[in-house]
Structure formats: C-alpha cells, structure tokens
Amino acid sequence: MILYLIRSILCLAFMLVIYLLFLEKEKMYRFNRFYLVLSIVFSFLVPFIVIEGYSWASQELYGTGATTVDPLVTGHAVIEEQALSTETIVFIIYGLIASALVLRLIRNVYLILSRASKNKRIPFHSAELVLLKNNAVSHNFWNYIFINEEEYANQGIEKEVFAHELAHARQKHTLDILFIELLQAIFWFNPVLIIYRRAIQMNHEFLADEAVVLAYNNPRNYQLLLLDKISGNSRISLGNSLNYRITKKRLIMLALKPANRKTVLLKELAIIPAMLLAVFLFSAKVIAGDQAPAKAPLVDIDIPVSIEIIIPPG
Questions:
Q1: pLDDT digits over 137-179, tens only?
Q2: Taking the complete model, does pTM exceed 0.85, yes or no?
Q3: Bridging pattern class, strands 127-132 and 144-148
Q4: Which of 110, 167, 206, 235 gives 20 to 30 Å between its CA and that of 214?
Q5: Distance CA 127, CA 207 (A)
Q6: Where are the domains of the chain?
C-alpha cells in the first residue's frame, strides 16, 4: 500500500510538471481541462500496472530444488507482527481523518444547496440567479449563480460578470471542483493535489474569461473591468479568486495571442509519449522468476577404464 501511494504521488507530480511547463501558458483551455482531470485518474491507475521482467541469474547453484531455511524465522515473525500492529494504528488514524474531511465536504455542499433553496431564485438562461442579502461577492456552484440582491436591484452588476459566472455553470466546472476536493479529503496527505486544485481553478477562470471575450468581443474593456475589480472599486468579483497573482495571470492570458495550431497539436500529441514514460517509471515491476537458458542435464556416465600393469623382467 505504501509503495502504491509513493508511486501515485510521484506520477501525479510528474504529470503536473508537464502541465506547468508545456501546457498552462497556452491558449488550449479545453484540452488543459481534459488533461488535468485525466492525469489525476491516470496517476492513480498507473501503480496498478505490472511490468514483468526476467532474471537470467540462477537462483540455485546446482539447479536442484533444495531450499534453505532461515535460522531467524521466529525473529522475523515477531518483527512482522509488530509492524502489522503499527500499520493498523496508522491506518485507523488515516481513516478517521479522511472520514472527517469527507463529512466536512458533504456538509459544505449541503450548506450551499440549502442557501440556494432559502433565498430568492430567478431563472437566468440555463442557470438560476440566487439573490443574497449579505455582501458576498458573485460566485457559482453547479447551476446556481449567487449574487448580491441589492446590487442586482440597482443594476450594479456588469453584463460581463453575468457572462463569466454563466460560463462556469454551463461548462459544469463544479464537477471538477467536487472531484478534486473529494480526492483531497481522501488523500489528505498528498500535497500535489493542492497544486492540482489551484491549477484546475485557474483553468476554469481562463475558460470563463474566454467565454466573456467571445460573447462581447472586447478584451480590452474586459481587462479594464478586471483591474477595476482587483483595485477594490466594486464589491462584485469575477470568479472565486480575487488576488493580485491570479488576476495578473488572467490579464496575461487575455492579452496572449493563440498559439499556432501546429504547435498546439504537437503539444497535445506529445502527451502520449509522456504518459508511456510515466507508465515505465511508476508502474510495478515484477521479476518473473528464474528464466535461465536451458542447459543439458548433468548425467553420471560410467566410463570403463582398462588398466594394464607391466612387470619388468628380472
């Protein structure tokens, strides 16, 4: 089990490095979304793959079926029993923490859905606006777009904000977030999943920004709106993350020209050898026993020997 976890974490880190180095800064957001989710599933499956190898070294000196007996068998049994006991304790602690985190996630989802059911809802295209009385910034969960009721009544919410949040709802970004948060709850000791979660959320913001630009075809005005939000001139935000670093990345991606289609295609195809390399590096390796080339058996052969004794004369 420990070896499986180590292999999966290393594979996850390997696939994440590929994303950060070669894919994140390209305007290929839909493929990147697919890659992020696929690479997580792939990393948890790779350690189950078994690659068989063959050992040509003879395990027995004379090819006999004799086995040796370890004189410390009893001692080893005691050590293994102690290790098993420790492993059980660790597993119980892990299970308790994971269960608590999963229950917390379920509780948070329940609270969000409860908030949607208790407040006024207005149909909005393929989603629903949920009007909140508090000063919460606009955000999305599943098919709900949560906005401030006062701002909505005063028409103080820009059309780009609605388009941004509607893109999150239409593209079902909540599924990705629930998926990664569930994995984080179960594998809470895995630090790579934290970075994956940020990468997925960032990709969602790129996708929603792209939808706004396609809808209104005015990236310059949209960039100015983002700067206005980050400067604190408005209580309404675009997306769930409003800090300088995140907004800076979004502004850069909005100004970036799309990559050459040939370059994008090459990067997409390059994922295949990368995944094959990951399989080779992080799959389980098994030596399939002694496969030494067959040798002619050693046979006792009776060779008749003729001995002639010559006695000299005299």
A1: 788 898 999 998 988 888 888 899 999 999 999 999 999 999 9
A2: no
A3: parallel
A4: 235
A5: 17
A6: 27-49+78-279
